[in-house]
Amino acid sequence: MCATFSEADIGKPVERTDGKVIGTVEELEAGAARVEPAPDVVDTIKARFGWAEIGGPFLLSEDAVHEITDTRVHLKEGFSRADTRLDTESERKRPQADR
Question: Disordered: where is this region (predicted)?
């Protein structure tokens, strides 16, 4: 059984099983949460030198969530960002000034 997102989850950090926070829940869509990624230091340095881009928001399905507590969204073992889809539809809905 997977966890179910609620309005109370907006603003919670999303954490992998190794304890690394990979982002924050920004808004909810049917059965999924839009997560704003939290780049680590290496990602930030690579982006600054033009060697890579920091990833954009992504949709996290409830199937990928092990547990939701009062303070965090805990992902299942083996979670991979490659298993998520880019949040292109939500990006199109957001005003240009918010991007």
Answer: 79-99
User: In 3-state terms, what secondary structure has residue 27?
Assistant: strand
What count of Cα atoms within 13 Å lies in the side-chain half-sphere of residue 22? 21
- Per domain, the residue ranges of the chain are 7-98
Please give the Cα distance from 38 to 48 (Å, whole number). 15
CB 59 within 8 A of CB 29: yes
Question: 32 is written with which tokens?
Answer: 């999924």
CATH 2.30.30.240 is held by the domain 7-98 = yes
User: pLDDT tens digits for 32-81?
Assistant: 999 988 877 667 777 777 776 667 788 999 999 999 999 999 999 988 76
64 secondary structure, DSSP code: G
